[in-house]
Design a protein that fits this description.
Length: 213
């Protein structure tokens, strides 16, 4: 009888395809899924909605401690400016501490969980039996984001989207608290020239092998 959750940890930069992959894997294996980016986005949105500053760590941490993971709404939190604001609150250690605690609790849900974010394999679930690091060139990621925005009738300029992504990569990779980087034992999947089905099959091969062990 299995009494420990099987955890799949997925990290990578914005628009790398990790979110879609995580959802597809969770559906395939019947696992619970948490997009941890939504937790940072929810804190940022609550601050914005209340007219509170984005750079006051004590206030942001207070909101992070109260966050209910069940209330996360992807549609409400998906706006581009909320992603930007999220990467600002995500540099604060006290915010990360509160959210990581909630994320670790979620990770224990049976029979298994898929968590995607920036620090899952390195900090949140360092003992996960499968760690994936999904990446793609900045140009390819900007093109995907640009097409997605146009499909949703959002006015967008490719170069502005590319600049934004580069700025966010820089903030996520250079911060001192849990910077974005692959865990030493993560499998790298570069989706620059790969469609979502090919990335899924590569991930599935690795997961099936780990599940057999
Ligand atoms: O993945 P998403 O774009 O929704 O994440 C928004 C921001 O939240 C990221 O740019 C990053 O700064 C932060 N984040 C994080 N750690 C995670 C997930 C997201 O720092 N595990």
């Amino acid at each position: 009888m299995q009494n420990q959750a099987f955890i799949i940890a997925i990290d990578g930069p914005a628009a790398s395809g990790k979110g879609t992959l995580a959802r597809n894997l969770a559906r395939h294996y019947g696992f619970n899924h948490l997009d941890t980016g939504l937790t940072y986005r929810a804190v940022a949105k609550a601050l914005i909605d209340k007219g509170l500053p984005l750079d006051d760590e004590a206030i942001a941490a207070g909101i992070a401690q109260e966050l209910d993971l069940k209330g996360l709404d992807r549609t409400l939190l998906s706006a581009h400016n909320i992603g930007e604001a999220a990467s600002k609150v995500a540099v604060m250690p006290q915010v990360r501490h509160a959210l990581v605690e909630a994320q670790r609790k979620f990770a224990q849900n049976l029979p298994g969980t898929v968590l995607d974010g920036r620090d899952i394999g390195t900090v949140v679930c360092p003992d996960a039996p499968v760690k994936l690091y999904i990446t793609a060139s900045a140009e390819v990621r900007a093109e995907r984001r640009f097409n997605e925005m146009r499909a949703n009738n959002v006015n967008a300029d490719y170069n502005a989207v590319l600049d934004d992504l580069r700025r966010r990569d820089e903030r996520d990779m250079k911060r001192s608290a849990s910077p974005l980087k692959p865990a030493h034992d993560a499998h790298l999947i570069d989706t620059s020239k790969m469609d979502i089905e090919a990335a899924f099959l590569e991930a599935k091969k690795l997961i099936d092998a780990a599940l057999r062990n």
